Amino acid sequence: MEDTAALVQLDEERRTIDNIDAALIHILAERFRCTQRVGHIKARGGLPPADPERERQQVERLRALAEESGLDPDFAEKFLSFMVTEVIRHHEVIKEAYDGV
């Protein structure tokens, strides 16, 4: 026999999760629009696609934010690493386009 109250609570939590997921996608899209602009600035300025010092600072900052928020800092670092890898790939493509002009 199913617990109706549990099913209602489950549905409510899942709707909240769905809303958060949608917000995350919108935030990530905006973040990548910003990083695309950064890629163009770097390419025009002759700067390298990667910035290891900035990446190191971001890891420290996001690990601290994760700890403050009750999120696993290792997870936060892995997530950041995934994003940074993708951003650098985009910056390399942008740089190649400027170099080819």
Could you explain the architecture of this structure?
This protein is mainly α and 101 residues long. It has one domain (4-99): Chorismate mutase (Chorismate Mutase Domain, subunit A, Up-down Bundle). The chain is built from three helices and no strands. Helix 1 (4-45) packs parallel to helix 3 (73-99). The longest helix is centred in the N-terminal third of the chain and has 42 residues, at 4-45. The model has no long low-confidence stretch (mean pLDDT 96). One of its GO terms (molecular function) is chorismate mutase activity. Residues 4-95 form the Chorismate mutase domain. It is an enzyme of class 5 (isomerase). Pfam families: CM_2 (PF01817).
Brief overview, please?
Its EC number is 5.4.99.5. The chain contains three helices and no strands.
Which outline best applies?
A: elongated
Fraction in helix: over 70%
What structural category arises from helix and sheet content?
A: mainly alpha
Q: What's the total helix number?
A: 3
Reported by name, the CATH topology is Chorismate Mutase Domain, subunit A
CATH 2nd-level architecture: Up-down Bundle
Q: What is the CATH top level name?
A: Mainly Alpha
What number is the mean pLDDT? 96
Task: Give the number of DSSP strands.
Answer: 0
The CATH superfamily is Chorismate mutase
The CA-CA distance between the termini, in Å, is 68 Å
Q: How big a fraction of the residues is strand? A: under 5%
- Which regions have little confidence, pLDDT < 50, spanning 5+ residues? none
Number of domains: 1
Helix and strand sequence: HHH
